[in-house]
């Protein structure tokens, strides 16, 4: 899938997809979960503006660190575990 995307999808089209998606979306990159892209819907949901782009997720949203999300992301990213968290509140 990664090779297909690299060969057939331009960075510009991904940015367009994110910005025009009808749902909240962000793209997190690397071990530090750097916010590479965040659409207006997720920024509104987070209560943040585009200044968070380029920051790590937990730097941008420090309030979630104490709510178990570091461990969840670590288990998914490093451990390959599936996580389904519908209706998981963040305070």
Give me some keywords for this one:
91 residues, Beta-Lactamase, two-stranded antiparallel sheet, 5 helices, 2 strands, 10% strand
In short:
By secondary structure, the protein is mostly helical. The protein has 5 helices and 2 strands, in the order H-H-E-E-H-H-H.
Structural write-up:
The structure is a single chain. The protein is mostly helical and 91 residues long. It has one domain: 2-Layer Sandwich (Beta-Lactamase). The protein has a two-stranded antiparallel sheet. It is globular. The mean pLDDT is 86.
Spatial order of strands in the largest sheet: 1-2
Structural class: mainly alpha
Instruction: Please state the overall shape, judged from the principal axes of the Cα atoms.
Output: globular
Arithmetic mean of pLDDT:
86
* CATH architecture designation: 2-Layer Sandwich
Number of domains: 1
Secondary structure tally: strands? 2
Radius of gyration: 14 Å
In CATH terms, the superfamily is PAS domain
CATH C-level class is: Alpha Beta
- Output the helix-strand order: HHEEHHH
Q: For the report, how would you describe the main beta sheet? A: 2 strands, antiparallel
Low-confidence stretches: none
Continuous helix count? 5
Q: Terminal Cα separation, in Å?
A: 35 Å
Helical amount: 40-55%
- By CATH, the topology is Beta-Lactamase
> Which percent band covers the strand fraction?
5-15%
